[in-house]
Write a structure and sequence with these properties.
This protein has 478 residues and is an alpha/beta fold. Helices cover 55% and strands 7% of the residues. The strands form 3 sheets. Strands 1, 2, 3, 4, 5 and 6 form a 6-stranded mixed β-sheet that branches. It has a two-stranded parallel ribbon with strand order 7-8. Helix 7 packs parallel to helix 14 and helix 11 crosses helix 20.
Amino acid sequence: MKAPSKGDAATMSKATTKYTWQEVKKHTTPDNAWIVHSNKVYDVSDWHEHPGGGVIFTHAGDDMTDIFAAFHAQGSQAMMKKFYIGDLIPESVSHKDANQLAFEKGYRDLRVKLIMMGFFKSSKLFYVYKCSTNMLMWLTAVAMVAFTDSIAMHIGSALLLGLFWQQCGWLAHDFLHHQVFSQRKYGDMVGIFWGNLMQGYSMQWWKNKHNGHHAVPNLHNSSAVAQDGDPDIDTMPLLAWSLKQAQSFRELQADGTDSGFVKFMIKWQAFTYFPILLLARLSWLNESFKYAFGLGAASENAKLERERKGLQYPVLEKVGVTLHWVWMAALASGFGRFSVAYSLMYFFTATCFCGLVLALVFGLGHNGMATYDADARPDFWKLQVTTTRNITGGHGIPQAFVDWFCGGLQYQVDHHLFPMMPRHNLKKTHVLIESFCKEWDVQYHEADLWEGTLEVLQHLSKVSDDFIVEMIQEFPAM
């Protein structure tokens, strides 16, 4: 079926073309991407200029009504008019019965209720406080190097700097989700400060990766050429979150078997998980530098966005990353007093500790939870809830510490449902969301830091066991 030209007003006025759900599902790649919003079909093929970047292709061949609402300000639908090609035939959506449609209406009504209650309005005083106390952490870490020659103080400074970077991550996260300012450019500018300058991360690299994760958490790509999978679980060959993912590298081998490296990593992944987290920040620094300076990208989605769209703020991104390395080099060298070996010790202590405490929180948010194939994903609400875990106090860890340490992501489920809601309103929202899930019999999972970590390790171990058993059954001579 040939679609009319995008934005063909004459075609729209004479007769509206009707499409079945089966037809929409055929258009799942960036160069052939159809999406559905409120039963209207849009052809966004090759729209790499999308203001939000390549995240739009995560819903190619699917309904993006609810994820659109989660990420966009009111009135953004107007930009979609030029891509309209026809209407969806509702009766062709056979996987949704009357109960499912009522459920979807229920959570859309809840969103309207939360908007009317003012839960999407931020407290500027709260963010002034968070930014000020975060800068105080940085100044303290700098002073511990500048004014003392104590090794213990320098180690303490490195650990504090790592914790500072973790908290920078939560602040950049809030501003770049546009939780604070209605003017998105203001959020971007503050995001560049906390991201590029203070952490060394490219703002646009982070947006591409994180927005894609939000749109399709814990989803595996539907095909090798599709971009509808979650970049945050694209961790092979180091870690596998499902048996299917563990086996995914077989197609890269000429004989269709697993390489020795893959076998080793998957077998022992429950033991290598924390050592890998220690190196996470080094990977993010590398990817950010490459992305900011056009030297490559980790995913095909990020590569296409960088090549076709470029950087939204090219000068600020590059200057921010460069200045980060300038102040970091000065601090790690003790402002010229430390030896090269001592400087490297300081840098790696701070960097590895940050990788651990940062990845620990967002790993608990999703790792070990349900995974899906992208072409068999549930509805927006169930996808976000079943792939996500909230973090509570427990096992001697006070809730107040969890709230500070996790930077709002202790309410990971609630945040995923309403990513533009300021973190200081998530606690109140949590009560309403939990009640809604109980009303509709949707599982809503919570665990404390200790229990959640055990769940992650147990899940990794189970995937390892399934992988080994299946490998023996499929290749008994090995």
